[in-house]
Amino acid sequence: MTSGEGIAGHHTGGGSRGRRDQSDEPELDPSGSGQEVLLQGFNWECSSLRDSHKRPYWLAGLADKAEQIAEAGITAVWLPPPCQSIAAEGYMPQDYDSLSTSYGNKADLKGCIAAFHRHGLKALADVVINHRCAQEQGPDGKWNQYTGRYAWDASCIVGNQAAQFGGTGAVKTEDLFEAAPNLDHSSERVRGDLKSWLTWLRHDVGFDGWRLDFAKGYGGQHVKEYVEATEPKVVVGEVWTDCCYDAGGGLAYDQDPHRQRIVDWCDATGGTAAGFDFSSKGVLQEALDLGQFWRLRDAQGKPPGVIGWWPARAVTFIDNHDTGSTQGHWPFPAAHLVQGYVYILTHPGTPCVFYDHLFADGGKPSLTLWGSLKRLLSSGSLRGPLLSRESLPSQPSLQSQPSGSTAERSMSTEVPPGGNTTSPSRQNSKNLPRRVRAANSFASVRSAILELTALRRRAGLHCRSNVMILEADDGLYAAVIDGVVAMKLGPRSWCPNPNLAGPPGVSTSPWQLSCSGPEWAVWERKREGSGRSARSAPLPMPGRTSGRGLAHEQ
To answer: Is 213 a known active-site residue?
Structure first.
């Protein structure tokens, strides 16, 4: 079996991993890239969009964008749930065999996947296998009878829901989704049928991998079984739990218990699946919103999210259809979207870009971008239909209390006198200069994403890139990644020290500013005598994987 590197695959050993460093990971193998950049290809409103004939067109529209998506540096696209659902968005599945959804029909879906493949893109299915809605009522009058190829009954529903759905299956210890019948993954019948369905999606429909919805609802050992049966190239699970908060209600500095649960889930899968790095999202948006950049370095001097412990199994992101979009359950601060992407697109882990931040035609725009989009449309800078909506709810920032920073000073060069070298300990989005808010308009966010994905590819950054955090204090975060990329966030001035060591055995040119904006900048340096970034050898192009794909290890 071939070994590779990335975000889904095989990992030997068991038990809780706890804090990890990369010393026990295999070296990057040329058979796998580890350089994937994902795109969530929809938001919460896409299912409601229709063409002039009142037909769903989202999947057909994505197929038309395949070339643009690939040119944007994306390597894999997370598509919406593929089967018929009683909820338009797809998260209440009912008939697994029917691929007619609010996003398009089976032909649209297969056409979209084919278009992606022509442009070197992978397609991920959003598979909802924690729960499934029944088509009929049973003798007890409860909704627990299923029809079609997977004709299940009450015995396939967990015993936790005996009163609600008449479930007679095993009682599960994982999280319960109350709104629908939860499937009993300990049942051989259920697991066998799910493997059959996933195999059909993989080989007949053409999907390359899975995004696992509500993955905290079933054990990682079952995920391992599904992965081994279907051999996807990409697997990432949604394990979304509350962050850690202090006694005053503010976000705690120490998020180890939070990221431990994500790491434990990934480890329970045998390392065959990655997890969305909710820990990094929570810490990053708090640090940016309040100017508390000390949060971005943990007590061991590493990044505070899953990327600090197991970066090859961390999928970083800014927002998704739940946290942002029109749901806005936990939106990233609007004034710091660009800075957020500067962080995740230069750091290890596998970054995931949200559709609303790259394209402007996703129905009702994201709450966090609504104001900027409205200004652009009214000024004529952005063409397109403006859908009406009710007044928007306010999005208050979390009020965090500093828990103390022990960040040490390190090799850096301060800009000569005249630069801003002080910052407030608290910098709420509402108090930011107008130029900073304007720099986070839709057009600016999209432009920054395109610049940063190009830089990530050019510099050869990957899911296991090494991060040297040089500054993490009020008003400034600075880091060097793989010795070839330097970046800084915050109002304080900073630039990389020319004496910082580059990759071993490689002669490098001086640092050059690559891209920048209000309160952020990114530098890169080249290998002497070439136009490439200073890496000892180029990595393979994204998408050329083997074995189980993007995070395959032995």
So the answer is: yes
